[in-house]
Amino acid sequence: MRAAVLHEIGQEKLEVLDDVEAVGFGPGKVKLRIRATGLCHSDVSAMSGVLPQPAPFIPGHEGAGEVVDVGDGVSGLGAGDRVLVCWLPACGECPSCKRGQTQLCLAGFMNAGTPNFKRPGGDVFGFAGTGTFTEEVVVGAGCAVPIPDDVPFEIAALIGCGVTTGLGAAINTAQVEAGSSVAVIGCGGVGISTIQGARVQGAAQIVAVDPVASRREAALRFGATEAVAPGELADAKQRITGGEGFDYVFEVVGKSATARTAYETTRRGGTLCVVGAGAMDDTFQVNMFELFFDEKRILPSMYGGGDVLRSYERAIALWRAGRIDLESMITHRVRLDGINDALDQMRTGEALRTCIEL
Q: Are 132 and 30 in contact (CB under 8 A)?
């Protein structure tokens, strides 16, 4: 079968090959035929080494498709079922799951160290234990979440990661209050979803911050009340909040420098929500006096900060009701052979989300 493979960490381009085989099918597993997958910035971060991932590997974790076969012991799924890929399934047994913090379950990360593909030259890993830049993939049954018939595969794929992450940051983690002021730093697919989440929550002012003009323009269409370049953020803070700072600031870049800017843009007693996935050697610093004196809440948000199955259902309900716009987030569509063009479009900021159709 065909798949896009990164041979070594640090390479900027993927090679589309037709000698890849999905392996690992057996009890508790399902084989999926991927129909659509989104290109998420986390895929690029794994390729560059910012996020740890063994190589060679197949990127992609934001996917949807059909069940081809189910292994022994799998219930509730059958051949032909339409599903989205959950890259962080809850095991239901670990301490995090028992506390109701299923987004912190580590079972999915354990799968990332087991190859789920092979080529004549050896084993190939799937990013985050999945790897959706391929025609077929074998995953644990918990990774295959049934979707209603009226949800297109490309919409389901977005819900599988970026939309759930952004909406959840505003709704679950920060719990944005109606009438509040919000700033969102970084307006790719996750940032746009965060903006939509803040709008759903009833924020009065939503300022989008991004260096790319086309993304700023897009943010206004998705609910931002104002969009500024990074150098204009201080002025927006002064104009909108009287210099006090925003009630909620979302960092959706994954860098300590932007997290520090976000902290300084948050009012005393306000909330800084860190959504971007960054590198292990990039350290965010606050001094002990300001930490005590400013009483700002610093809230990381992992995969939307809540039960992902409930978050999927909520995203579908909001989409059906017209409260969020998911179709317009897909600005580019390519076939698998165009994956490297899609990577370039993401790196330059030209694309919000690219749908890869298989």
A: no
User: Residue 66 carries which side chain, given as an amino acid letter?
Assistant: E
Cβ(327)–Cβ(353) under 8 Å?
no
- Report the chain's terminal Cα–Cα distance, integer Å: 11
Q: Which helix (H) or strand (E) holds 47?
A: helix 41-48
List the one residue out of 36, 59, 64 whose CA is nearest residue 46.
59
Could you report the per-residue pLDDT of 42-78, keeping only the tens digit for each? 999 999 999 999 999 999 999 999 999 999 999 999 9
> For all residues of the chain together, what is the average pLDDT?
95
User: How far apart (Å, rounded) are the C-alpha atoms in residues 119 and 277?
Assistant: 30
Q: For residue 139, which of 104, 106, 114, 103 has the smallest C-alpha distance? A: 114
Nearest to 60 by CA among 130, 108, 156: 130
Separation of alpha carbons 25 and 40, rounded Å:
26
| Rounded CA separation 231/243 (Å) | 15
- Note the residue count of the chain: 358
pLDDT score at 113:
79
Q: Which residues pair with 125 in a beta bridge?
A: 57
Q: How much is the pTM?
A: 0.95
| pLDDT > 90: percent of the chain | 93
User: Residue ranges of the alpha helices (H) in 226-307?
Assistant: 233-241, 256-265, 288-294
**Nearest in space to 271 (alpha carbons), one of 202, 184, 190:** 184
Q: Which residues are within 8 A (CB) of 24 and not within 5 positions of it... i.e. 6 or more apart?
A: 114, 115, 116, 138
Helix (H) or strand (E) holding 21: strand 21-22
The answer, yes or no, to whether residue 298 has pLDDT greater than 90, is yes
Extended strands (E) in 28-180:
29-38, 57-58, 62-70, 82-85, 117-119, 122-126, 136-140, 144-146
Tokens 């600031």 sit on residue: 249
Cα dihedral 341/343/347/351 (nearest 10): 70
Look at residues 122, 95, 110 and name the one whose alpha carbon lies nearest to residue 19.
122
333, exposed or middle or buried, with CB in 10 Å at 0-12, 13-18, 19+?
A: middle
